[in-house]
Amino acid sequence: MAFSELLDIVGGLGRFQALQTVALVAPILWVTSHSMIENFSATVPSHRCWVSLLDNNTAQVSVPKVLDPGTLLTISIPPGPNNEPHRCRRFRQPQWQLLNTNTTATNWSEAATEPCLDGWVYDHSTFTSTIVTKWDLVCDSQALKPMAQFIYLAGMLVGAAVYGPASDRFGRKLVLTWSYLQMAVLSTATAFAPTFPVYCLLRFLLACALVGVMMNTATLLIEWTSAQARVLVMTLNALGFSFGQVLVTAVAYGVRDWNLLQLLISAPSFLCFVYSWWLPESARWLLTTGRLERGLHELQRVAAINGKRTAGDTLTIDVLLSAMQEDLSMNQAPSSLGSLLHTPELRLRTCLSTLCW
């Protein structure tokens, strides 16, 4: 008898698995939201250089009333692509000669221009605030925007290398609970990042935590569900990622300020951290690491929730030892990444999993 048979005794698909799936898949919605949020929080709005005639109230007093904002823009900002106001250059001095309809392109192209030394003016009609408008990630600094996403993805890579072995050593539930807390605190702190480097650092650490949530969610779902039902629960887990994309889009449609949007998708993580204490540890991990008494307690607890208390009471330490001999012997064998390539079937599965990821 192996652990799968113990799971059949206490119930491999019942009330407990339904509750666990809901509790574990719900946070996946917010994990996806954090991964997708920069589609909205890092939007680059239309922008132009700040110019005195248009944006300085004191200077506007001396401007003739007959000159409308469009005219002032023409003499202050050179045309860019598609004849729209240039986003990154301005005239050093107002080009009043451009008010003359006979002025040719050669005339204004020879006028001296300069970068946006006094900052930019952004279009806030779609988003009232983004990280781009907060830290001026445009023109010469436009490369910093994709760098933020690169740093975030690097955090996911590091998180996968750290939280996988950590869950094998300290337990799935403990690492998952810590990941929820880390996700809640860091995602909230991101909304208050004072500088762009701090923002990137917080996003890096947040990405590490999100991987911890994803990995241990999948592990707990698999290890507490019978083999026949694992496809179902993992499909529901995958749907959580899809619905998370819809969720963050809906929230971003109603909330156009990046700070508030960040806070709204961060708040549910604190609830996830609180109720994660109710979740049982993986009995399989407990038994294979020699924590037999606690493993027995978790199995009996699940049996009670599934309405199989009597069957759960028949389990004893001796029964567990007898059932887990095969799994315990496998756990004692040395393991490495090379084990994934040991047989043709494992090589195929490793390659397919890598491509899917």
From TrEMBL:
Molecular-function GO terms, alphabetical: transmembrane transporter activity
Domain (Major facilitator superfamily (MFS) profile): residue spans on this chain: 104-357
Claim: Transmembrane is one of the keywords in the record: yes
InterPro entries: MFS_dom (IPR020846), MFS_sugar_transport-like (IPR005828), MFS_trans_sf (IPR036259)
Protein topology in the membrane: Multi-pass membrane protein
Keywords for this protein: Membrane, Transmembrane, Transmembrane helix
Signal peptide: none
Superkingdom of the source species: Eukaryota
Transmembrane segments: 147-166, 178-196, 202-224, 231-254, 260-279
Location relative to the cell: Membrane
A GO-annotated cellular component: membrane
Protein name: Major facilitator superfamily (MFS) profile domain-containing protein
Species the sequence originates in: Otolemur garnettii
